[in-house]
């Protein structure tokens, strides 16, 4: 039994947070808690436990084989949804540390923000959104993953702050914590810059194609642009109750984002396979909608509780690219007869 005067490691960490973090940081000891109350860990804070639960869950591992921008690329150096997540986490932690925010909460949100992404990236998301009566948004699904789908339907029982940051990482109302708002910026900084690098590697872009104004203000190379964007947020947000990007930098970043939308995200060369991917997702959805008996056991429970549309959507959105392709081949592509 713990001595009345002896602090646990967790309690020492919580005390250190109170002494060293910004007044605007979310301290672990002040967390709004979990939906299901649990005994405190003697070593880790609640936000550290959130991070670990996400890092060790199946949905996180599947990100390794989910598309970022280029579908099923041949080559080891293109980003996947997992490497994107790791880059978001690194950028977010850099900003959080500089602003004396809670790095553990920031990391937990960053690691969990894309758990609900479909196979084939935004192509899969668009298709599910068009055929599921409830629509589909990956940030909403990411929260559903941690609340309902992981651990065979038990969920990860994360803190309210982590779930709020995941939900608010892309659009709509800003997160309730500055840590969550940092992740929203970090996500955009990461994907715009690594998508430029991947597009150049794929031959879709050249460095000279990047707008001159962006190269002059933000930097000509990926590392320069990330440094400029990160430093601008840190300088503008220091000792403030919000996370801010200066307007001149934000305006140029929007211009760069629009350029990427036109040059890469809707580029017919880069997106040549997306029509096939959407058709594949649609066929799988239709199949499981009418054949729920073919769903795995955990998804059949979803079917019994919430209906066929929800079960089909949850199952397909959980698939990696290659698992979805294998599933499609087994269901719809004839195999050759062998003696």
Major sheet attributes: none
**Overall helicity:** 55-70%
The sequence of SSEs as H and E is: HHHHHHHHHHHHHHHH
> Looking at the chains present, what oligomeric state does this protein adopt?
single chain
- Give me the CATH architecture of the domain at 45-242 and 249-278, please: Orthogonal Bundle
Describe the overall structure.
With 339 residues, the protein is mainly α. It has a domain at 45-242 and 249-278: Hypothetical protein af1432, CATH 1.10.3210.10. It contains 16 helices and no strands. α8 crosses α9, α9 (178-201) crosses α12 (247-265) and α13 crosses α16.
Q: How is this structure best summarized?
A:
This protein is mainly α and 339 residues long. Helix content is 59%, strand content 0%.
List the helices and strands and how they pair.
Elements (H helix, E strand, L loop, with lengths): L8 H12 L25 H10 L2 H5 L18 H18 L4 H10 L8 H11 L6 H12 L10 H8 L10 H24 L10 H6 L4 H16 L9 H19 L8 H17 L6 H10 L1 H11 L2 H12 L7
Helix pairs in contact: 2-5, 4-5, 4-9, 4-11, 5-8, 5-9, 6-13, 7-8, 8-9, 9-11, 9-12, 13-15, 13-16, 14-15
């Amino acid at each position: 039994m713990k001595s009345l005067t002896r602090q646990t490691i967790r309690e020492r960490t919580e005390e250190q947070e109170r002494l060293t973090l910004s007044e605007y940081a979310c301290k672990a000891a002040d967390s709004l808690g979990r939906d299901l109350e649990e005994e405190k860990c003697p070593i880790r804070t609640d936000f550290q436990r959130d991070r670990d639960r996400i890092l060790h869950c199946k949905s996180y591992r599947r990100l390794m084989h989910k598309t970022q921008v280029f579908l099923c690329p041949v080559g080891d150096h293109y980003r996947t949804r997992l490497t994107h997540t790791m880059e978001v986490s690194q950028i977010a932690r850099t900003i959080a540390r500089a602003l004396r925010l809670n790095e553990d909460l920031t990391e937990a949100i960053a690691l969990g923000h894309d758990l609900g992404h479909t196979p084939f990236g935004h192509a899969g998301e668009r298709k599910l959104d068009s055929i599921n009566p409830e629509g589909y948004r990956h940030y909403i699904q990411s929260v559903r993953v941690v609340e309902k789908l992981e651990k065979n339907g038990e969920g990860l029982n994360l803190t309210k702050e982590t779930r709020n940051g995941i939900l608010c990482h892309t659009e709509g109302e800003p997160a309730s914590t500055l840590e969550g708002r940092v992740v929203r910026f970090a996500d955009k900084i990461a994907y715009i810059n690594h998508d430029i690098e991947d597009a150049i590697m794929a031959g879709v872009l050249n460095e000279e194609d990047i707008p001159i104004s962006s190269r002059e203000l933000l930097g000509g190379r990926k590392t320069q642009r990330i440094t400029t964007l990160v430093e601008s947020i840190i300088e503008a947000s220091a000792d403030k109750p919000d996370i801010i990007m200066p307007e001149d930098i934000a305006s140029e970043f929007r211009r760069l984002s629009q350029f990427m939308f036109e040059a890469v995200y809707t580029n017919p060369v880069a997106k040549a396979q997306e029509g096939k991917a959407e058709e594949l997702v649609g066929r799988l959805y239709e199949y499981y909608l009418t054949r729920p008996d073919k769903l795995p056991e955990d998804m059949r429970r979803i079917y019994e509780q919430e209906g066929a549309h929800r079960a089909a959507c949850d199952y397909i959105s959980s698939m990696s690219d290659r698992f979805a392709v294998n599933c499609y081949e087994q269901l719809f592509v004839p195999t050759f007869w062998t003696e």
